[in-house]
Specification:
By secondary structure, the protein is of the alpha/beta class. The chain has 2 domains: 112 residues, Vaccinia Virus protein VP39 (Rossmann fold, 3-Layer(aba) Sandwich), CATH 3.40.50.150; 128 residues, no CATH class. The chain is built from 8 helices and 11 strands. The protein has a 7-stranded mixed β-sheet, sandwiched between helices. It has a two-stranded antiparallel sheet with strand order 1-2. Strand 10 and strand 11 form a beta hairpin. The longest helix has 14 residues.
Length: 254
């Protein structure tokens, strides 16, 4: 019935569900018109939307950390057959359900963390993992679990990045006494935030570009496109190092 609400009714509900981090246009009512990043996330989406197929007909999409559902709704608009949005925040999930209802889009939303995606028991053609990694205490574990349990083909990934944007060409191994690479600006670095960053106590990590790309490769994803500074489109590949050593994730899954 939310698709039948008047503009005043939508505005009242938007106010009641606020504050919003996604600035959505709900039939002429903006949810976060004074967002400090502008028309976010649409302003960011416009810079990389071309890497996602215009038609997702017959495809399934999983949006991990969906917030108010902006990307989930965009995928549904492109014709995705099944779209599932996950978040751990009840307020975001209520916002997402309301917004999708206003737009008349059939999207499922569930309360589930990135660490628990194995409970879904299904794989998705496209997994969206935008703006989540740096909020997790165990970020590489989350990437491993996504690769192991839910990714079938594509991963759309974004993380806040800080530090130098250079990426060093590194050897696959160094002896114990070789340490200079660690001081190089283009060496993969994951900066730990003990307290707060940008007034947010859930900002735990700030990787540089080299670290983001190395973590994606380590988790078994092949970078196919880098359309925006923080955004990557990846294809699922193999994890040779983990396969070689014996993955604890695989043994637990059995």
């Amino acid at each position: 019935m939310t698709a039948m609400l008047s503009k005043d009714e939508i505005r009242q509900r938007v106010d009641a569900l606020g504050p919003w981090f996604h600035n959505l246009d709900l039939n002429g009512v903006r949810t976060a018109p004074s967002h400090f990043l502008g028309d976010y996330p649409n302003v960011k989406w416009r810079r990389f939307s071309s890497v996602i197929p215009d038609s997702l007909e017959g495809k399934s999409v999983l949006d991990i950390g969906c917030n108010a559902g902006f990307y989930a709704m965009e995928m549904k608009r492109r014709g995705a057959e099944r779209v599932l949005g996950l978040d751990t925040d009840d307020e975001y999930l209520e916002q997402a359900k309301f917004a999708a209802g206003v737009k008349g889009l059939k999207i499922e939303f569930r309360k589930l963390s990135a660490y628990d995606v194995g409970q879904l028991g299904e794989r998705f053609d496209l997994v969206i993992f935008m703006g989540v990694l740096y909020h997790l205490r165990y970020p590489l574990l989350a990437l491993d679990l996504i690769h192991e349990h839910v990714a079938r083909d594509l991963l759309l990934f974004q993380s806040m990045q800080r530090g130098d944007s250079r990426v060093d060409r590194l050897e696959t191994n160094y002896d114990f006494w070789t340490t200079g690479q660690f001081d190089s600006p283009g060496y993969p670095k994951l900066h730990f935030i003990e307290h707060r960053y940008a007034d947010d106590p859930t900002n735990w990590w700030a990787p540089n570009r080299a670290c983001v790309e190395a973590m994606l490769r380590s988790a078994g994803f092949v970078i196919a496109a880098h359309p925006e500074d923080e955004v990557y489109l990846c294809r699922k590949g193999a994890r040779p190092r983990l396969e070689e050593l014996g993955s604890p994730l695989r043994s637990r899954a059995r």
